[in-house]
Design goal:
- With about 70 residues, the chain is an alpha+beta fold.
- The chain is globular and about 30 Å long.
Length: about 70
């Protein structure tokens, strides 16, 4: 199962899905939107947020925690 598939499945029950960028170690949260992934790192102004493809998410990120609601 890919990280994107895990993300989609986790969204059924999770309140928050924490992620880590594998090369940099930068942590944040993610969710899906229209077949893409929205990544949020936490800057107050949103300057570090990104929308990426499922393929890019699979290459760059690992799910580190699934916090259920």
């Amino acid at each position: 199962m890919t990280e994107f598939e895990k993300l989609v499945k986790a969204e059924d029950t999770a309140h928050t899905i924490e992620i880590r960028e594998t090369k940099t170690g930068k942590c944040g949260v993610a969710n899906t939107e229209g077949g893409k992934v929205q990544v949020f790192y936490g800057a107050d102004d949103g300057s570090d947020d990104a929308t990426i493809t499922a393929a890019e998410f699979n290459k760059r990120f690992q799910i580190t925690a699934i916090l259920e609601s």
